[in-house]
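Let's practice the habit of predicting before peeking. Look at the sequence and jot down your guess about where helices and strands might fall. Then scroll down.
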Amino acid sequence: MSLLFSSYPLARSLLFSMDAEAAHELTLSTLQKAYDCKLTRGLMAATPSAPLTLMGLNFRNPVGLAAGLDKNGAHIDALGNLGFGFVEVGTVTPLAQSGNPKPRMFRLPRSQALINRLGFNNQGLDSFIQNVQRSQWRSSGGILGLNIGKNAATPIESAVQDYLLGLAGVYAHADYITVNISSPNTENLRALQGQDELAGLLQPLQEKRQELADQYGKRVPLVVKIAPDLSTEQIDIIADLLPRYGIDGVIATNTTLSRDAVLGLPHANEAGGLSGTPVHELSLAVIARLRQQLGADFAIIGVGGIVSGQQAKEKIAAGANAIQLYTGLIYRGPALVNECVRTLRNAI
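Done guessing? Here is the structure:
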């Protein structure tokens, strides 16, 4: 492990003294500068190997970056260089939007958790695609996922149009595309996880994907990202619909609205989605049920509350094929990536 990675606990003390969103932006800026400098780039770890084939894609390892950390796709190469086998960026919406009012991100250190209500703040589809096109991650063998959503101002009954615009916009530039219907921070978005609503979204997406596959001569996998706050019946409905409409994978899970695990902690009552350690068990239950219902061959990416290699292993044991990190990176730093790859290499 490089000196750059092992020094993260010192940097974290400084970062945790700042507003959480300001620290997030500073971290991305600093990471980008370190990557842009050839000397410091060389101090960053090479991608650890634990090859995986999933959805017809060849991953260098099964540890990915979850969407949300780089919403505009502006730091793909720098983030990929931390050792990830795949990187997912977004969520992008067709039009730029500022998101919810600040402050909108809060740390709960005693639970290794975050609450955010960012609200799909991003610079819009055109800027996003330009950033993606500038990156070298895919040409160097990295797998890139592009995550699409709807604008806050778009009525939920018109959401399909936003997703179709997103799909068409990112299609040529993605190794896989994630349909995000599970953020709690866009009003009514989670309603799209209902049976009729989901079918009404997946059908036109399936048709549009076929048009785009014919146009570009390649079939890009589609995955759906779901919430941890689903009943067994809701999970079963989703598991029935995804393969029916040709969806290739599912990401389980997004952040939770539950506060049971953090009651009484500072900021626990802030509105938004809770991520980090408290989500781990919730996502394990969703993953296990999905695997039971979907069978052995359907792709499941497990995310939520992974702050150690052991928790990554538990995600795989529950039924996930690969995992993603977000909040764990904030608490553990880049060393967590290598720890997870090493643990999974020995476990799979």
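How did you do? Residues 195-216 form the longest helix (22 residues).
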